[in-house]
Design brief:
The chain has helices at 2-19, 26-33, 104-115, 120-123, 216-220, 224-229, 240-251; strands at 49-54, 59-70, 73-80, 87-91, 95-100, 135-142, 151-156, 166-169, 195-200, 203-208. By secondary structure, the chain is of the alpha+beta class. It has a 7-stranded antiparallel β-sheet, with no helix packed on it. A 3-stranded antiparallel β-sheet has the order 8-9-10, with no helix packed on it. It is globular, with a radius of gyration of 21 Å.
Length: 252
């Protein structure tokens, strides 16, 4: 009986410890607010060579001449062979991975958007908007917004540097938090992306900021040390990219 009482007390104590709020310093908050994900791009460049790796192991290279999307997600790609100039269509269920370059038009638009929000100067790197690196797309079977039937799409992986445990994918239809602007001046605040597609283990879901707390235990609850350092009541959605990165580092 005493053993059961002791175990119950330890369990309650542990739960209480995780529930307690942690007070972070200004420096820590600034670090947690830094956006670590890659920028999400929706338009591949038709002038640079794209690479498709099919599920059968074959590789195809060419210019991305046409893409078909559903709710913003790519489900079919047409590439023109750089030598024969012949176009070939591939559906997402044929493709394992795709590497493309972002279009210049979209990069220019993203730079303008970056300059239009003062918050970006302290939380994001402009170089992520002007990247010349290839963008990595991965075939994933998802339910769009957790409402539609499961379907295979090519989704942009936006945390390739720290996706060993949790992979985060760009949501082309994601909205951003509102800010404040007066008479054409740069926006103050806002600009925080509200949703992503997130995969941990075999589960992939659409994660909206409003559902962040409900899914916090699923994402991080298997790491007691992390939960003690970053209990759900102490963090905010604004810290999401940092939390994924920190969880990955602490898990390795």
């Amino acid at each position: 009986m005493r053993l059961k009482t002791l175990l119950l007390a330890l369990c309650i104590a542990g739960t209480t410890a995780f529930a307690q709020k942690v007070k972070y310093s200004k420096e820590e908050i600034k670090k947690m607010e830094t956006y670590l994900f890659n920028e999400g791009f929706n338009a591949p460049s038709p002038k640079k060579t794209s690479t498709l790796i099919l599920k059968d192991g074959t590789t195809h290279k060419g210019f991305c001449s046409r893409i078909e999307t559903k709710k913003g997600q790519i489900y079919e790609v047409s590439i023109k062979d750089s030598i024969t100039k012949k176009s070939t269509n591939f559906s997402a269920d044929q493709i394992s991975e795709m590497y493309v370059y972002p279009s210049n038009a979209e990069k220019i638009a993203k730079v303008a958007k970056y300059m239009g929000n003062i918050r970006n100067f302290g939380t994001k790197k402009l170089t992520k908007n002007t990247t010349g690196d290839r963008i990595h797309f991965v075939n994933q079977t998802v339910s769009l917004k957790n409402k539609k039937d499961d379907k295979e799409f090519l989704m942009q992986l936006i945390n390739p540097e720290f996706n060993e445990v949790i992979s985060v994918y760009h949501d082309p239809r994601a909205k951003e938090t509102a800010g404040f602007s007066m008479m054409g001046s740069p926006q103050l605040g806002g600009g925080v992306i509200k949703s992503y597609y997130v995969k941990k283990g075999d589960k992939i879901m659409w994660l909206h900021k409003d559902d962040f707390e409900d899914n916090y235990d699923f994402l991080f609850g298997d790491h007691p040390e992390f939960m003690k350092k970053y209990p759900k009541k102490s963090v905010e959605w604004d810290y999401f990219s940092f939390l994924i990165s920190e969880y990955t580092d602490m898990s390795n």
